[in-house]
Specification:
Blueprint (H helix, E strand, L loop, with lengths): L2 H24 L5 H23 L1
Helix pairs in contact: 1-2
Length: about 55
């Protein structure tokens, strides 16, 4: 994936995380598993971005 695509995907993950956290706070969802998986995927993506920036 190109750097632009990775950054776009990071922005989408940030938005999804915000929505899930908001739903969790309101008690509308019980899928904590989905939130945890999304956080881990975002961390992996950020690691890839940092590696490419340093290279």
């Amino acid at each position: 994936m190109s750097l632009d695509e990775l950054q776009r995907q990071e922005a989408e993950m940030n938005e999804q995380t915000f929505k899930l956290r908001f739903q969790w706070a309101l008690g509308q969802t019980e899928s904590l598993k989905k939130l945890r998986e999304l956080r881990k995927d975002r961390a992996r993506l950020l690691t890839i971005l940092k590696e490419r920036e340093s290279a």
